[in-house]
Amino acid sequence: MFQLRDVTCQFGRKLAVNNVSLTIPEGQMVGVIGRSGAGKSTLLRMLNRLAKSTSGSIRYGDIDVTALRGAGLRAWQRDCAMIFQQFNLVPRLDVLTNVLLGRLNERSTVMNVLGLFSREERIEAIAALERLGIEQVALQPAGTLSGGQQQRVAIARALMQRPKVLLADEPIASLDPLNAKIVMDALRDINEREGITVIVNLHTLDTARTYCQRIVGMAEGRVVFDGAAEHLDGQAVATIYGTEQAIDETMTSTALPERQAALARPATPSASLQPLVLAGL
Ligand SMILES: Nc1ncnc2c1ncn2[C@@H]1O[C@H](COP(=O)(O)OP(=O)(O)OP(=O)(O)O)[C@@H](O)[C@H]1O
Fold first, then answer.
1. What is the mean pLDDT of residues 1-27?
2. Is 5 exposed, middle or buried (0-12, 13-18, 19+ CB in 10 A)?
3. Which residue among 21, 66, 185, 268 is the one 20 to 30 A from 48 at the CA level?
4. Which residues lie in coiled coils (predicted)?
5. Which CATH class is domain 2-278?
6. How many Å apart are CA 105 and CA 81, to the nearest integer?
């Protein structure tokens, strides 16, 4: 489990995250919400050490995350995968290679320099793509895919890391509601089936309510709400978003009419061997 004690991150005079203490048991799906600038991204980035805390302690089980360096830090960043709003794929490389890049940290430098991936690694990458319903695009350049497809590739790449924790920094902020639903369903499925802890920053309140067992609300760097979705009442929302006015949650809704929702369900993975053949297996 994660244990954060009095964690602070300061940029110059700006306190991006201010004295945050949280305990996150393994296997939870946690939504972090708050206004722009509340400190959500900085909090997530400190968890996998893309950002360094200024003070306080972050532990994951026996690991003192804040003290990690070198090989220990690389191992942690493999265990703690992250996906981003802008997908961060290599657009000119094909989808399969992008997914295989999730394995780079575990391989020898020679294998990496030669760009060699084993048959087992390729099969695992195809299986990850199948699970997300996009195995048919395995050999297309990643940059030619739609945003929703690209985010699914990013999730497949994260799965290749065999992570213990999946951090998602506004993964649906650039997607339309249909693709947002596909991506959030995939994150929920990974959380439920593998028991991987998922911590996801969200702008849309109703998405947090629908998908997250636990919601953490941030305002000006501090945690101002921490509880179950059903306890997120009007007063809590006003504290998080700093407004007395009721927020119209349907404005940013990811809820879909039933017909569109049916379209959003990933197709059953095809029994066809075509992607494997295409991938040279
Ligand atoms: N590298 C940085 N250097 C200076 N200031 C930063 C840096 N990163 C974040 N900040 C500042 O810290 C505060 C928190 O930023 P952060 O990106 O964590 O907020 P956020 O809640 O994720 O916002 P958004 O929803 O817009 O992404 C903001 O005021 C931001 O300008």
1. 96
2. middle
3. 185
4. none
5. alpha beta
6. 11
Pairing outcome for strands 214-219 and 29-34 = parallel
**What is the β-pairing status of strands 197-201 and 29-34?**
parallel
The residue ranges of every structural domain in the chain are: 2-278
| Residue of the CA atom closest to atom 26 of ligand 1 | 36
Q: Looking at the predicted structure, is the pLDDT value of residue 272 above 50?
A: no
- CA-based radius of gyration for the chain: 19
Cα of 8 vs centre of ligand 1, distance in Å, is: 13
DSSP class of 97:
H
Nearest-CA residue for atom 30 of ligand 1: 37
**35 CA distance to ligand 1 centroid (A)?**
11
**Cα separation, 256 vs 261, whole angstroms:** 6
Give this prediction's pTM: 0.87
Burial of 9 (0-12, 13-18, 19+ CB in 10 A): buried
Largest CA distance in the chain: 59
Contact residues of ligand 1, CB 6 A cut-off: 11, 14, 16, 34, 36-42
| Cα-to-centroid distance, 221 and ligand 1 (Å) | 9
The pair of structure tokens assigned to 101 is 């890049």
Residue 250 pLDDT exceeds 80: no
